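[job 0412] stage=fold_complex status=start
inputs:
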Amino acid sequence: MEGKELVYIIGFMGSGKSTAGRKLAASLGWNFIDLDRKIEERAGKTIPQIFSQEGEAHFRMIETEVLKNTRPLSETIISTGGGTPCHGNNMDFMLATGLTVYLKMTPEQLANRLLESSGERPLIKNIPDDQLHDFIEKKLASREKWYRRAKVIIEGINLDISNLTLIIRSNQAD
Ligand code: S3P
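[job 0412] stage=fold_complex status=done
writing structure:
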């Protein structure tokens, strides 16, 4: 299959995509790209600035453009943003060009993790702490139809990087 040397890490905000992607790249000796950072480089602004100055629709446009035009070297792990697979035909694009890995977490696990960092994330910064769990539950339910299309679905909590490394190697050998 084409594109096996690219791996896309997908999943909800706070599921540890960037950390896992970086560790996985180190473990495989591959390159690493964080799509959110590429978007910030391309826009010359931070993600909160893009959302507040230009709005979410504009952010989604840049996100899709950066995803499709990044042209990564072969052997690259790309950590995406939580909404990347759910807009445009980005999930189709990722399925066609690489191996998709969904880091799955429950709303409870996500809420616990996001309570620490909600202020930095435009989609949740105005949500009171006591409503965060419900928001995540609803948003995750609406996004899971994309996330579940990933070729590999793995529990994000206590993620075993050496196990994931083996899974990726065995998918390359297919
Ligand atoms: C978003 C998730 C963020 C970032 C943006 C929108 C989302 O990335 O792309 O704030 O729609 O879920 P992380 O998943 O890395 O937080």
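[job 0412] summary: Residues 104 and 155 are 5 Å apart (CA to CA).
[job 0412] exit 0
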